[in-house]
Amino acid sequence: MSLMKTLREVAIRGVTEARARIFGHVLNPTGQRSGHKILRKKLIGDKVADWYPHDFKKDDPVVMARLEKARLSKLQMLKRRGKAPPKKGPRKTCYET
After folding, report:
1. Which DSSP letter does residue 57 get?
2. With contact defined as beta carbons under 8 Å apart, do 36 and 26 qualify?
3. Where does the signal sequence lie (predicted)?
4. Is residue 64 a contact partner of residue 58, using CB atoms and an 8 Å limit?
5. pTM higher than 0.70, yes or no?
């Protein structure tokens, strides 16, 4: 390689590095994949969390007690009609003897 070609490549590399430093770009001379494109995006977790309203029912014990009482009364009504869910426990399969 000639001396002029080497000097030209060094000068171009120096200008490229300076431009990246000044403008805040990421220098990637090898062209390898990096996660910089994803990491520079704004995080959206707070926006998503703000979209859903706060459920004040779960903070109030009076409301929770009333809901639990309604659930239990509905379950009792279903039991009287014979429509309640079955008891959970050990099941026997047709393969056991």
Report:
1. G
2. yes
3. none
4. yes
5. no
